[in-house]
Amino acid sequence: MNAASRFGRPTTMTVRLDPELEQKLRQRSAALRKPASALIREALVNYLEGGAPQEMSAYALGADLFGRHRGLANLAERRKSRVAHAWAGKQRSRLG
Questions:
Q1: What's the predicted TM-score (pTM) here?
Q2: H helices then E strands: how many in the chain?
């Protein structure tokens, strides 16, 4: 800990940003009418309080979608007769 932070004064740090990130930061800073340093501080606090984002598995990303379908549980069962029935219905609607 340096002397400035021991006495409660803010510490200056240098951070390297790629041009695209810097541009986004400046745009957000202007839109919110807040200094870029304030946005960086808020983002850093949120990141550190929430912990580092963890990589999620493919299953975790889609867990809310699994098992949420309607219809037949096994579409492979009697597939030929189902296709024939669907085809016949389509033909009937085309002809009349």
A1: 0.47
A2: 5, 0
